[in-house]
Amino acid sequence: SDYRQSLQFQHLNEEKQNIQVEVLRGGKRFRTSIFDLVVGDVVPLNIGDQVPADGILISGHSLAIDESSMTGESKTVHKDQKAPFLMSGCKVADGYGSMLVTGVGINTEWGQLMANLSEDNGEETPLQVRLNGVATFIGMVGLSVAGVVLGVLAIRYFTGHTKNPDGTVQFRAGTTGLKQGFMGAIRILTIAVTIVVVAVPEGLPLAVTLTLAYSMRKMMLDKALVRRLSSCETMGSATTICSDKTGTLTLNKMTVVEAHFIGTRLDPCDDVRAISSSSAALLIEGIAQNTTGTVFLPEDGGAADVTGSPTEKAILSWGLKIGMDFNDVRSKSSVLHVFPFNSEKKRGGVAVQSDTGVHIHWKGAAELVLSSCKSWLSLDGSVQPMGAQKRNEYKKSIEDMAKSSLRCVAFAYCQCDIEKIPKEDIADWKLPEEDLTLLGIVGIKDPCRPGVRSAVQLCKNAGVKVRMVTGDNIETAKAIALECGILDANGVISEPFVIEGKAFREMSEIARGEIADKITVMGRSSPNDKLLLVQALKRKGHVVAVTGDGTNDAPALHEADIGLAMGMSGTEVAKESSDIIILDDDFTSVVKVVRWGRSVYANIQKFIQFQLTVNVAALVINVIAAVSSGDVPLNAVELLWVNLIMDTLGALALATEPPTDNLMKRQPVGRREPLVTNIMWRNLFVQVEFA
Ligand SMILES: Nc1ncnc2c1ncn2[C@@H]1O[C@H](COP(=O)(O)OP(=O)(O)OP(=O)(O)O)[C@@H](O)[C@H]1O
Ligand SMILES: [Ca+2]
Fold first, then answer.
1. Most CB atoms within 10 A, among 49, 361, 445, 688?
2. Which residues make Cβ contacts (< 8 Å) with residue 463, sequence separation at least 6?
3. Is residue 674 reached through a cis peptide bond, with omega within 30 degrees of 0 on the bond before it?
4. CA 495, chain centre distance (Å)
C-alpha cells in the first residue's frame, strides 16, 4: 500500500504542476498545458503568474519578477529591454508583458535544478504526531505491565509455587536440572512478550495513513486537491471560513450591464449615439490602452477573442460593442508609461502619447476614482468643473449600481504637458493621479454561483461561520452577501458586522481582536486587511480557513490554518500559498472539504476507541490469567494473528467509512479538544468490562 500511495502522490504532483497557460503560436491563440510549450511560443505574463519556461521578454511594462525560488533572494527584480531574461518557475510580482520561450523542460535553469533535487513528501501531520505519542504511551504501559508479570511469574516459579498438572512442583532448587529450569524461564518470558504484543497498538499509524490517503483520493473526486496532507484533518476542526467574493461566491463571469457616461445613463448600456465623437474617442482610447487584456481578431473573420482578467474582459467586450477597433486605436497612440492595476490602490493607469498630446488614463474602483476627479466631461465634449451636485449625482448612481450587486469601475483622464514628463528615468515616473476629469462609470454584473446559498446554510448548521472579505465596494459586497445568505436580511447589516477595510486597518490591535468575531462582511479590503483579519481571528482561538484566488489573497492564504486556492481562476502565487486547491472554484466544494475533514477526524477517533478497547481488554485478561494460572489463553503467535486481522481489517473498515450527513450537524471541534475525549474513555471502560 505504500507503493500505491507514493504512486498517488506522484500523480497528484503532476496534477499540481500541470498549469494551463495561454500561448500565441503560428498566429493563433489558444490555451495549453505548460508541458506542451515549445521553443518559439509567445506567452503573455500577468501579475501572479508563474513564468512557465525560460525565455526573453519581448514587451511589457513595470514587470517585476520574484526570483526567490531560483536565487533564494526575496527581492523582486525588474525586467525590461536591458534585463530581458526570464527564468522558468519564478513568479510575476507586478506589471505585465509577454515573453518568447527559448527553453523548456530539462533545458531550463529550473529543470536542471529540479533534476538535482528530489522532493521529500515524508512529512508527518500534527495528528500523526499526537497519535505516535498515544501509541508510545500505550506501549510503555504494556511494557511495564509485562515487566511486573514477568517478575511475579519468575518469583512464583523459582520459589516453587507452581505445579505441573499432575501436582508435582515444577521447580525445586537443587533438584531441577539446568535445562529444565531454563525451559521454564523461557516459557515465562514468552508470556511477558505476549503481553507486550497485545498492548502495542500496531494498527494505529497504519489506520491514520490509510484514512488520510483514502480521504485524499476521495476528495480528489470532490474536486479538491490536497497539497498538504495534514490540512485534511485541520479542515475538520475549522470554526470559520473567510471567503473572497469574486470567483468563489460568484461565477467570475462578468458583463457590463449599466453605464453612466458624460453625465447621462446610457440605455441600453452600449448605445453611445448621444455622445459626441470626440468624447467617445477619448473613452475608447482609455479602454483600449489602459488594459492588461487583449482583443484578438481571427484572420478568417469570426467572433473576436477577448482575453484578460474577468473585469478586463467585460470592459473590453463592452468597448467592442460601443465601436472600438482595438488594433486601430492602439496603433494611433503609443504608451509612454504604465501603472499596472493592483489590489492595494485599486486602480490602474497609463500615459499615452498621440497627435492630440499626452493623456493619462485611469480606471479603477469607482468611488475612489471619483474622489480624485475635479471635473467631468459633458455631452458636448467640454470639460465642466465637478460641483457638489454633480458629485452627489455620480455618488448616487454608484450606490444604486452597487446595491443591485454590480461591481463599479470608473474611467477618468487628464491632459499632461509634454514638458512635465521626465525624459530620463521614465520608469520611475509617478503618473499624476489627482485633478482628473471623469469620463464615466460602468456597472459590471457578476452573478452568484448557483448552490452557494445552500452551501452557506450547510456551514451555518455545522457551526462554521462564513465571512466575506472582498476588495469590492462595500455595498456590492453587502448585496452579494445577502443574496447568498451570508448576511441575514432580518439581522444587523451595519458596522461592525459590515465594515470597510480602511476602518478595520486603522483600529488598534486590541480593538481589532474585539470586533473580529462579529465581522461578517468586509469590503474594499487591501491584501493586508485580509491578513489582519485572519490574524485577529486566530488570536481569538478560531481555526480559520481562507479561500481565495488572487495574488491579493496570498498573504491571508498563507497565514490561515487551512488555505484553499481556486484551481481555475487562481493565480500561481495563490496556489503556492495554499494547502488545498479547489479544482472547480466552487464554494460548494469547500464545504465538501469540511465534511471530509470531519470524517477523517471522526474515523480516527473511532479507530482509537476500538483499538484501545481491544488492547485494554486483552491486556487485562492476559494479566489476570497469567498471574492466577501462570499461563495465557492464547500464545504469542495466536495473539499476533488476532491482532493482525483485527487491526488491519478494523483500520480498513473504519478508515474507509464515508462521511455521514450527521457530521455536518455537529459543532466544530476547534483547537483545544483532546483527541481522546472523556466520553471515549467512559465508553472504553464500559466495553472492557463486558469483554
Ligand atoms: N483590471 C482592473 N482595472 C481597474 N480596476 C479594477 C480592475 N479589476 C478590479 N478593479 C476594481 O478594483 C476592485 C477590486 O479589487 P480587488 O482586486 O482587490 O478585488 P477582487 O480580488 O477582484 O475581489 P475579491 O477580493 O472579492 O476576490 C473592483 O471593485 C473594481 O472596482
Ligand atoms: Ca479574488
1. 361
2. 239, 666, 667, 668
3. no
4. 28
Query: Domain-by-domain residue ranges, the chain?
Result: 19-115, 140-203+599-658+671-690, 214-246+449-594, 255-445
Give the Å distances, CA to CA, from 482 to 53, 458, 476, 588.
Answer: 44, 16, 10, 17
Tell me, which fold does domain 214-246+449-594 have in CATH? Rossmann fold (3.40.50)
- What is the per-residue pLDDT across 421-453, written as a single tens digit (0 to 9) for each? 887 777 778 888 888 999 989 999 999 999 899
**H-run or E-run covering 618:** helix 587-629
Nearest CA to ligand 1 atom 20: 471
C-alpha span between 42 and 62 (Å, rounded): 19
**507-558 pLDDT, tens digit each:** 998 999 889 999 999 999 988 999 999 999 998 889 899 999 888 888 899 8
Residue whose entry in the numeric block shows the C-alpha cell 484578438: 296
CB contact at 8 A, 442 and 256: yes
ipTM of the modeled complex: 0.96
Q: From residue 411, how far is each of 348, 414, 434, 441, 526 by CA, in Å?
A: 10, 11, 13, 6, 21
Q: Cα(666)–Cα(668) distance, rounded to whole angstroms? A: 6
Q: State which residues have CB under 5 angstroms from ligand 2, the bound ion.
A: 244, 246, 549-550
Q: Which CATH entry fits the domain spanning 255-445: 3.30.1540.10, 3.40.1110.10, 3.40.50.970, 3.40.640.10?
A: 3.40.1110.10
* CA 307 to chain CA mean position, Å: 24
Out of 41, 49, 244, 472, pick the active-site residue.
Answer: 244
Q: Exposed, middle or buried by CB within 10 Å (0-12, 13-18, 19+), for 198?
A: buried
Has 244 been annotated as catalytic? Answer: yes
The atom of ligand 1 lying closest to the CA of 410 is 31
